Automatic annotation (TrEMBL), chain A:
Localization per Swiss-Prot or TrEMBL: Cell membrane
Top-level lineage group: Bacteria
Record's bilayer topology term: Multi-pass membrane protein
Keyword presence, Hydrolase: no
Family statement: Belongs to the CPA3 antiporters (TC 2.A.63) subunit E family.
InterPro entries: Cation_antiport_E
Keyword tags: Cell membrane, Membrane, Transmembrane, Transmembrane helix
Record keyword Disulfide bond present: no
Species name: Sphingomonas colocasiae
This protein's name: Na+/H+ antiporter subunit E
TrEMBL record, chain B:
The keyword Cytoplasm is assigned to this record: no
Protein name per its UniProtKB record: Monovalent cation/H(+) antiporter subunit G
Gene that this sequence comes from: mnhG
Record-linked InterPro entries: PhaG_MnhG_YufB (IPR005133)
Pfam family, one: PhaG_MnhG_YufB
Superkingdom per UniProt: Bacteria
Automatic annotation (TrEMBL), chain C:
Transmembrane segments: 6-26, 38-57, 63-87
Pfam short name (any one): MrpF_PhaF
Main location: membrane
Record InterPro entries: MrpF/PhaF-like (IPR007208)
Protein name: K+/H+ antiporter subunit F
Amino acid sequence: MKRLLPFPLLALALLVMWILLTGFSPGHVLLGGVVAVLISRTMLSLRPDAAGYRPGLAVIRLAGMVCADILRSNIAVARIVLFRRTDRKSGFLHLPTGLRNPHALAVLAVIITATPGTLWVQHDARRHVILIHVLDLVDEEEWIRLIKDRYERLLMEIFE
Amino acid sequence: MIQAPDLPIWAAIVVGLLLLAGSTITLIGTFGLLRLKTFYERVHAPTLGTTLGAGLILAASILCFTVLYSRPVIHEILIGIVVTLTTPVTLMLLARAAIYRDRTEGTSPVPPDALTKDRDQ
Amino acid sequence: MSLLILALVITTSQIILGLAMIFAAYRMLRGPRAQDRVLGLDALYIGAMLLLVTYGIQTGRTLYFEAALAIGLLGFAGTVALGKFLMRGEVIE
């Protein structure tokens, strides 16, 4: 089983995508299954590290939190664009991070960039500092605390 | 072009509201492209369209086709997944390219690269 | 009657998306710098993709969905190539 299907989640995702694109019928499920198994095997030649995440309540909590935050910051950024405030300033922010797992860092990068108003610019792997650009940088400390408390703790729970 | 899918009234109302909200959010996002002053501020603006704007319009499409064909039609989720996964990659790449160019030119105030700073000392 | 209102609403949101594409195109044409143009292009293809989805709703055909997906994927590849070009001066290292 392990040799036939080295990446079961990837194969399942490919099968679901095939069915969504072509419509549900027994023939397409069979064909999609063959394609999913073959294509997921090409990942073998890339030799990815095992992600080693723990599925559980933390994943669901993180997903819900990200959706809520995206909604809130959408409204915040829309207000910044529509109503020009004079006291608003944007700027760069150095965030010291405790995350070491590359997969956790990748997830954090996608979360921070997908949320309007914050943008991941650079990660210094030696000093473990992330450079983030924030559109509404009122209080630097507050942003650092927000990201650490909300995301970093959950990501550590999931990945480390 | 006056044409519309044959939806029951409740679905028509929801689809219409979702479409209007989604397109307006996208418009505000691109309006930010015009209005904000520096590149690093502008790079935040299109995220509005790719998160909430795309989400609302895709939700309208899912609802419309699910009601129209009276079976779940959710392949729009694929567009949602593609957009959510690709936008952060492009924006990060663009921001890194911009900060690299600004550092090389040294004209606009950007934080220096920690690694090259070490090398200089 | 409700169909007429829905048709008008769909057309209105298409006009709004078209306006959004005009704003993005303005940023793409005016710059001032190369990264601004790439950012405008990125916003432009997102707008085009959403516009195609609304055409799909209007006609009630799922044909437009595949075109929208193709725009999303190709636009991503294009922006990544341009971003890499800005950073390194070449696309494939």
